[in-house]
Amino acid sequence: MTLCLDTSDGVAVALLRDGEELAGARSDEARRHVETLTPLITGCLQQAGATAAEITEVAVGTGPAPFTGLRVGLVTARTFAQARGIPALGVSSLEAIAAAAAAPGTEVLVATDARRREVYWGRYRRTETGVQIVAGPGVATATDLAAAHTDLIDAGRVVGAGVRLYPQALATGLDQDAIEEAGATVVDAAMLGRLARERAAAGAEQPTRALYLRNPDIAPPSRRKRAS
């Protein structure tokens, strides 16, 4: 059984058995990852009628995302996997969004909230077995991102919170209802788990290293220079 976690934007949890979703839960609380994650895992286990002992691997979203929330999911996944002697498999949160949003054979631009009036972004091609990176991931202003990917913007093939936050730049090819739908697209934990399983079966490395793309918002104070 696969435990699937993502804390890149809110908290998403799912349980898979042989790729089939047994249970799933989500909280959009953006600043309560620590308090929310464990109860959601417990609730999914209860919903599935399963125990933690049945979990044989953990799939976790690696971002990009702000430091604090992302770290909660990664530390939880690593700690659980290490304690049980099972693999922890990292998957880009942007790739998980793309896999759920795009039809096979098409490309999609994913733009999520990076704060500081910027977005995390990635351009992906959906295949029959997963997603391929076309460009990115990176961090940019919505205006700069739109200028570099006008084909997908004009075609309305862009999803993620960035669409809702910066519609003037990223949603020129969408009507209001489509903006709301695209802007509400978040990580599907079950899809993230399926990507992890597919890549594990192919022998791909899946490190659980966080993808921050820039320095944390809060940095330790620098040492004061001694007066000479």
General description of the model:
Helix 3 (93-101) packs across helix 9. The protein starts with a strand and ends in a 27-residue tail after the last helix. It has helices at residues 33-48, 67-84, 93-101, 142-148, 150-155, 161-165, 167-170, 176-183, 189-201; strands at residues 2-6, 11-17, 20-27, 57-61, 88-91, 107-115, 118-126, 131-140, 158-159. The protein has two domains: 2-93 and 187-201, Nucleotidyltransferase, domain 5, CATH 3.30.420.40; 94-183, Nucleotidyltransferase, domain 5. The chain contains nine helices and nine strands. The chain has a five-stranded mixed β-sheet, with helices on both faces. A four-stranded mixed β-sheet has the order 8-7-6-9, with helices on both faces. The relative contact order is 0.18. The longest helix is centred in the N-terminal third of the chain and has 18 residues, at 67-84.
Key terms:
single chain; 228 residues; alpha/beta; Nucleotidyltransferase, domain 5; 4-stranded mixed beta sheet; 26% strand; acyltransferase; T6A_TsaB; ATPase_NBD; EC 2.3.1.234; tRNA N(6)-L-threonylcarbamoyladenine synthase activity
